């Protein structure tokens, strides 16, 4: 059993990861804006961007491993709050990497597939990133800061979906909520990605940490699809009306941040390290549906009761 500190623990990845890890490990979750009511692991409410907070946090909790899920991830919010995005996505990860390196604490840092411009797709870890919006630029700067300060750190570029605290954090929930209500929605036909179900991603990250992998890994599904086809896959799995999804371009959506078209990443390196393939889209969506039938969505949402 290990002591695992999970930052960003009220977020989509942080909460799901902490829930899966706490059965086998001692988990301490760090939240900022949203507390977790009745979570089966300890939580601390802290602003990680404040001076000296990170040193105090690590000295007080004494983790064996830190999994840094904290980030400002909304693309349009990052465009409107560039200094905050830089602080949370770039500066804090670098500081955390420096402190964990000095204390010989394992570190897993969560980055994003969005560090690429999406012009050609099929990117490997050796390809040169070219971020095209504030979120992506700050996340890439964070990657570089972590790698420089702590060469032993594991950096995972990810894309994921799942059930979240307030039911509004993932593309899958957006499709599910709207289609369940009978609302017509747009699906981008010109944005391609390889998302993992967050529960599968959590399993992978814990396995990667257990194997003490170091360096950069693309931690995404090897099966790609457009966001329009992703919505249709979800609709068919849940028995919803896929004809409510209208094919459209992201350029017509009135979005503030530029979107990359082909965020398709190769996960060959990770699959070789683990000795197996990563989940495909159909099997992941089936598990997403099974979790819903098992009441997992309601369990996740229950932690939002009486939150501050």
Provide a concise account of the structure shown.
The chain has 308 residues and is α/β, with parallel strands linked by helices.
Summarize the structure in words.
With 308 residues, the chain is of the alpha/beta class. It has one domain: Rossmann fold (3-Layer(aba) Sandwich), CATH 3.40.50. Helix content is 41%, strand content 18%. The chain has 11 helices and 14 strands. The chain has helices at residues 12-21, 53-61, 75-80, 82-103, 134-149, 171-180, 198-210, 227-238, 268-274, 281-293, 296-302, and strands spanning 3-7, 26-31, 42-45, 65-68, 106-112, 154-158, 160-161, 185-188, 192-193, 196-197, 215-219, 225-226, 245-248, 262-263. The strands form 4 sheets. A 7-stranded parallel beta sheet has the order 3-2-1-4-5-6-11, with helices on both faces. The chain has a 3-stranded mixed beta sheet with strand order 12-9-14. The chain has a two-stranded parallel sheet with strand order 7-10. α6 crosses α8 (227-238) and α8 packs across α10 (281-293). It is globular, with a radius of gyration of 18 Å.
Largest sheet: 7 strands, parallel
Instruction: Provide the succession of SSEs.
Output: EHEEHEHHEHEEHEEEHEEHEEHHH
Tally of discrete structural domains: 1
The helix-and-strand class reads: alpha/beta
Strand order of the largest sheet: 3-2-1-4-5-6-11
Strand content: 15-25%
Write down the Rg: 18 Å
- Corresponding CATH superfamily: NAD(P)-binding Rossmann-like Domain
Can you name the CATH architecture? Answer: 3-Layer(aba) Sandwich
What's the average pLDDT? Answer: 94
Q: What would the CATH topology be?
A: Rossmann fold
Enumerate the spans where pLDDT stays under 50 for 5 or more consecutive residues.
Answer: none
* Helix share bin: 40-55%
Strand segment count: 14
Task: Please state the overall shape, judged from the principal axes of the Cα atoms.
Answer: globular
CATH class: Alpha Beta
C-alpha termini separation: 31 Å
Quaternary status of these chains?
A: single chain
- The number of helical segments is 11
């Amino acid at each position: 059993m290990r002591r695992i500190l999970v930052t960003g623990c009220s977020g989509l990845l942080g909460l799901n990861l902490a829930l899966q890890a706490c059965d086998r490990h001692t988990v301490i979750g760090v939240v900022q804006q949203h507390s977790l009511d009745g979570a089966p692991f300890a939580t601390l409410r802290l602003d990680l961007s404040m001076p000296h907070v990170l040193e105090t946090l690590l000295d007080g909790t004494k983790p064996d491993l830190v999994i840094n899920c904290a980030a400002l991830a909304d693309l349009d919010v990052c465009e409107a709050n560039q200094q905050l995005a830089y602080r949370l996505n770039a500066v804090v990860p670098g500081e955390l990497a420096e402190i964990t390196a000095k204390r010989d604490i394992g570190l897993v840092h969560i980055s994003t597939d969005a560090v690429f411009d999406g012009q050609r797709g099929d990117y490997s870890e050796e390809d040169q990133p070219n971020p095209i919006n504030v979120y992506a630029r700050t996340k890439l700067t964070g990657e570089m800061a972590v790698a420089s300060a702590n060469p032993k750190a594991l950096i995972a570029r990810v894309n994921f979906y799942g059930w979240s605290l307030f039911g509004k954090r993932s593309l899958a929930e957006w499709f599910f909520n709207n289609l369940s209500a009978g609302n017509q929605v747009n699906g981008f036909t010109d944005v391609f990605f390889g998302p993992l179900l967050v529960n599968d991603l959590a399993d992978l990250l814990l396995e990667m940490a257990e194997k003490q992998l170091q360096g950069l890994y693309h931690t995404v599904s090897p099966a790609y699809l457009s966001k329009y086809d992703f919505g249709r896959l979800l609709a068919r799995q849940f028995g919803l009306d896929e004809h409510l999804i209208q094919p459209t371009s992201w350029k017509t959506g009135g979005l503030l941040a530029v979107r990359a078209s082909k965020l398709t990443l190769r996960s060959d390196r990770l699959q070789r390290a683990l000795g197996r393939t990563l989940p495909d889209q159909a099997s992941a969506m089936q598990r997403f549906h099974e979790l819903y039938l098992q009441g997992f969505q309601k369990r996740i949402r229950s932690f939002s009761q009486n939150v501050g």
